[in-house]
Structures are given as structure tokens and as C-alpha cells.
UniProtKB/TrEMBL annotation:
The name this protein goes by in its record: Homogentisate 1,2-dioxygenase
Binding site for homogentisate: Y334, H355
Keywords, in A-Z order: Dioxygenase, Iron, Metal-binding, Oxidoreductase, Phenylalanine catabolism, Tyrosine catabolism
Record's keyword annotation contains Oxidoreductase: yes
Enzyme Commission identifier(s): 1.13.11.5
Cofactor: Fe cation
Similarity section: Belongs to the homogentisate dioxygenase family.
Location of the Homogentisate 1,2-dioxygenase C-terminal domain: 265-418
UniProt-listed InterPro entries: HgmA_C (IPR046451), HgmA_N (IPR046452), Homogentis_dOase (IPR005708), RmlC-like_jellyroll (IPR014710), RmlC_Cupin_sf (IPR011051)
Broad EC category: oxidoreductase
Protein function: Catalyzes the conversion of homogentisate to maleylacetoacetate.
């Protein structure tokens, strides 16, 4: 699997040619009268044409046939996908889901719309359908099972502890190699960026060179039975037929690409004196809103690190947050809750909903001898933190049957320690 090659850098002006067609990328211009190898030129715009340079995103794709050569889109069944946020009454409770079940192959099949099992990945993509999201960008967090993502830009192998971003409009298909599960965050109206580093300086957190973009790969494949392009548009699914694989891009250049990132490369910053630093220090990617400092969504991780803070309650503090916090666990356990929150599960702490360590964590960390210690070794929890208030779907609250109704009980044993006679000890 490691045969796949990548280009390194975040949001760079990349260029790539499938080595089978040297010289396929036009030189010096985007729209030659006739493109090398008889290819069609097609621009994919990820920003308004007139966006300022730092946010201006587009790529030029040189392909065997242009994307427009397809039959009309028709509405298709949307399964559990919904854009109806009023399906169920709002619920401000702390919500926790047990690991989402992976259907056995004997059961009714579920898919990523486009998931396909295990074809060869160096030859044909093997697909007869692909997906694209016209509404926004996907951040995909595999939790179990590696996934091979074939895109118009090339192929990416993404394993648990890596994440990838497929931006608005990019066509892709997903191969799985066994039981596979993960999380997806969708953002509208902004693309993910690296957070500013402020006083941290020029280096640190997720470093740009660790982001990897696929290299051009094409197949010139006619599909007599029809190739289906599934398009998520205004929250609904539409499909259209064409007679060829859309993974027919021989060369491309631009700064609007899919990419992946290995979370082990995150340069962790943490408190080395006292108190608990806010989790914004663990932000991998941010999708900014128009309000300065307020993200539509941040992708935050809780990676292995040293905990050394003196005279400090080291785990996450009790809090209420104007932001919504959805958390998932890729592996291991989460320090604020050793029990109950399991890999492949999730929690949602909505706008201003109180949460924090469970009773065990509180008692243990209030009395622990504060020596330097490894925190979260072998684990990887993450948070999708958003300034939007969240609605949960009917599927999430009811149909999936994974909601842990006992979640609130992890805080019930919290005891009162208040002692009105307490006095500061004399030094
Ligand atoms: O709620 C959580 O577990 C996430 C979280 C972690 C932390 O260290 C500080 C604040 C916060 O919301
Ligand atoms: Fe929190």
C-alpha cells in the first residue's frame, strides 16, 4: 500500500502528471487551444474567482473527457441522510453514543455511498460510481480499517490515526478492506485552514509539510453499463449517468486538492508550569467563520503528551461552552472518562451544556501525586468544536440505538467536598 506517492505541503500550488503521460500538463498557460495528448482542460473553483489571494482556491484538471459529459441528474433515495434539522425536538442533554455498530456482511449493506470492497488499487479503480459533495467539505476521520480514497487528483490511503479532507466538488470513491468505521465532519462556506500560531511562532502544531496530496492517476475506462456520479446538493442526493470513469485526470495543477495528515505528526504544546491550557492548543485544522477567532468548526485532537503542571487539577476542567463539542475516540481511552466513552463511539456536549470529568477522574486527579507523567499514551481522542448549535437527527437519537441513556450517571456520584471551616494552611 505504501507504493502510493504524495506531494507534501498545505495548500501549496502543486502540479502533477501521471508518469504514463509525460508533458501532459500544459506549460505556461491553462487553456491551450489544443491540450497535450488531446485532453480537455477543466477548472475546479473552490472559492469565488475574486477571493483575496490567501483564500483563493482553484485547480486545473486535464482530463480525457470533461465532467459535463453526463446525463441529467435525477433525485435519489437519501437513506439516513437528512437535511431536516427539526426531525426531533432539540435536546440539550449530554449525549453519549456507544460505538456505532458495523453491519456484518450478511446484513443489509451500508456504504459511504460509494464504498467498495477491496479491489486492486494500482490498476482500475474498479468503481462504477463515485460521490461528490456540492454543499461543502468533508473531513474524514477513519477509526477502524484503512480506506483507499480514489479522487480525481489521484489516490490516498488513509489509515486510522490519519485524517483526510475532500473539499467541495471533488469526486471520490472509497475502498474498504474489512470492517471499517469512522467519523465525518462536513463544513459549508469555508475551507479548513491551519490555525494561526500567534506567539507560538513560525513552527508547531500541525506543520504544513506533513499534509499530503495525491499525485495524478488516471484510468481511461469506458463503462458500458453506465457510471453513476452521486451528487449531494442542497442536502439531497442526486445521481447522473455517464459512460466513463471520472477518474480520468491525466495531469493537474493548483492549490485546491484533497489531502491527508497523520495525527502522530502533530507537535503538541502543553502547559509546563501550572493550570490547564484550553484545548485550542490542540487545533489541527480550523474552518473560520467571518467573526475573528470564532470557528465554524475546529478539528482538535488530544494526543499523547507529557503532563507536568504543578499544583494543578490536570484533566479537563468542568465547563460550559458557547461552542458545541462533539468528541470521538479513535483508539485508547479519554482521560476525563476512562469508562463508557469507547473507540468508535461519541459524545455531544451542546451549547452551554455542563460537562467535565467523571467522578473517578475527579477523585483520582485531586489526590494524585503530581509527578511528570505521560498522558493519553496509545490513545487518540478528537473533538469537532463548532460555534453552531447542533441538532441531532432521528437516526442519531433513536434509530441507531446506540445512545447511552446512562451517560448522566457518570457525574451523579460527585460528592460535596465543601468545608465552611476550611482555612488556608499557615506556611
Ligand atoms: O470537554 C472535553 O472533554 C474537551 C475539553 C478538553 C479540555 O482539556 C478542555 C476543555 C474541553 O472542552
Ligand atoms: Fe468540553
Amino acid at each position: 500500500m505504501s507504493e502510493l506517492k504524495y506531494l507534501s505541503g498545505f495548500g501549496n500550488e502543486f502540479s502533477s502528471e501521471d508518469p504514463r503521460c509525460p508533458g501532459s500538463l500544459p506549460e505556461g498557460q491553462n487553456n491551450p487551444q489544443v491540450c497535450p495528448y488531446g485532453l480537455y482542460a477543466e477548472q475546479l473553483s473552490g472559492s469565488a474567482f475574486t477571493c483575496p489571494r490567501p483564500t483563493n482556491k482553484r485547480s486545473w484538471l486535464y482530463r480525457i473527457l470533461p465532467s459535463v459529459r453526463h446525463k441529467p441528474y435525477t433525485a435519489m433515495h437519501c437513506g439516513n441522510l437528512t437535511e431536516n434539522w427539526d426531525e426531533v425536538e432539540p435536546d440539550p442533554n449530554q449525549l453519549r453514543w456507544m460505538p456505532f455498530t458495523i453491519p456484518k456482511s450478511s446484513e443489509k449493506k451500508v456504504d459511504f455511498v460509494t464504498v467498495k470492497h477491496n479491489p486492486s488499487f494500482t490498476q482500475s479503480s474498479g468503481f462504477t460510481w463515485c460521490f461528490n459533495n456540492s454543499d461543502g467539505d468533508f473531513l474524514i476521520v477513519p477509526q477502524q480499517g484503512e480506506i483507499l480514497i480514489t479522487t480525481e487528483f489521484g489516490k490516498m490511503m488513509v489509515e486510522p490515526n490519519e485524517i483526510c479532507v475532500i473539499q467541495q466538488g471533488m469526486r471520490f470513491s472509497v475502498n474498504v478492506f474489512g470492517e471499517t468505521r469512522g467519523y465525518v465532519l462536513e463544513v459549508y462556506g469555508a475551507h479548513f485552514e491551519l490555525p494561526d500560531l500567534g506567539p507560538i511562532g513560525a513552527n508547531g502544531l500541525a506543520n504544513p509539510r506533513d499534509f499530503l496530496t495525491p499525485v495524478a492517476w488516471y484510468e481511461d475506462r469506458e463503462v458500458a453499463t453506465g457510471y453513476t456520479v452521486i451528487n449531494k446538493y442542497q442536502g439531497k442526493l442526486f445521481s447522473s449517468q455517464q459512460s466513463f470513469s471520472p477518474f480520468n485526470v491525466v495531469a493537474w495543477h493548483g492549490n485546491y486538492t484533497p489531502y491527508k495528515y497523520n495525527l502522530d505528526n502533530f507537535m503538541v504544546i502543553n502547559c509546563v508550569a501550572f493550570d490547564h491550557a484550553d484545548p485550542s492548543i490542540f487545533t489541527v485544522l480550523t474552518a473560520k467563520s467571518s467573526r475573528p477567532g470564532v470557528a465554524m468548526a475546529d478539528f482538535v485532537i488530544f494526543p499523547p503528551r507529557w503532563g507536568v503542571a504543578d499544583h494543578t487539577f490536570r484533566p479537563p476542567y468542568y465547563h460550559r461552552n458557547c461552542m458545541s463539542e462533539f468528541m470521538g475516540l479513535i483508539k485508547g481511552h479519554y482521560e476525563a472518562k476512562e469508562e463508557g466513552f469507547q473507540p468508535g463511539g461519541g459524545t455531544l456536549h451542546s451549547t452551554m451544556t455542563p460537562h467535565g470529568p467523571d467522578r473517578d477522574c475527579f477523585e483520582k486527579s485531586s489526590t494524585a501525586l503530581l509527578k511528570p507523567e505521560r498522558v493519553a499514551d496509545g490513545t487518540m481522542a478528537f473533538m469537532f468544536e463548532s460555534s453552531f448549535s447542533m441538532a441531532v437527527t432521528k437516526w442519531g437519537l433513536e434509530t441507531c440505538q446506540r445512545l447511552d441513556k446512562s451517560y448522566y450517571q457518570c457525574w451523579e456520584p460527585l460528592r460535596k467536598h465543601f468545608d465552611p471551616n476550611w482555612r488556608p494552611s499557615k506556611q
